[in-house]
């Protein structure tokens, strides 16, 4: 799709990367200096985060985050698969609309609008359902791209053997499409995991909600949210690394 970058372009990218790294390092150093001048780096302020009770509380929130993310992922993938396999005006319109509507707005609808019509779900589902409705549109695009990436000859070969169209899709096209789109599915899981932080809106005890409660309890707002951000960073970097490994493995298999 594009030519390999030449020596001049690689040098330009190198120097842009160096300058960007220096600017980022300068911003980090400035932030640390500000924290130090305000006493935010004093060891006494960080000592509570070396104790197991604090980590147990935060990891409990992380577990709730993972549970919500897994439930959302299952529902969103099922919905996305149905949307992708039944392309029509409605499914296309749904995918376009849901990809543009903010997830927070859907959460507010679930929290304030539906109860006025007698639909009052538990806190867990007030978070999971809006996220699933939103991410189903993104998964539909991924599934559609995965199906389109399969050689049309594979479908034609299955049909020529007398297999029904549905069986060809399930047993011939989808298994190959899944291998193509697995890295994208993992990458989408990173976005989904971050969106579970909206659980604080419905008072679902996920990681960010527990961090807010802990910060209100011990008065260490900056330290608490730095630790919470670090936990999110570790988990999402692990998922991103998995996606890169899967993509590399798929590229080696394609050769």
UniProtKB/TrEMBL annotation:
What GO cellular component entries does it have? plasma membrane
Keywords carried by this UniProt record: Membrane, Transmembrane, Transmembrane helix, Transport
Q: Which Gene3D superfamilies does this UniProt record tie to the protein? A: MetI-like
| Entry annotated with the keyword DNA damage | no
Transmembrane parts of this sequence: 12-35, 55-83, 103-125, 220-239
Concerning CDD domains, the annotation shows: TM_PBP2 (cd06261)
Q: Where in the cell is it found?
A: Cell membrane; Membrane
Q: Which GO terms describe its biological process?
A: amino acid transport; transmembrane transport
Residues forming the ABC transmembrane type-1 domain are 58-243
The topology of this chain with respect to the membrane is:
Multi-pass membrane protein
Q: Does the keyword Transport apply?
A: yes
According to its UniProt record, which protein family does this protein belong to? Belongs to the binding-protein-dependent transport system permease family.
* Name of the featured protein: Amino acid ABC transporter membrane protein 2 (PAAT family)
Biological source species: Lentzea atacamensis
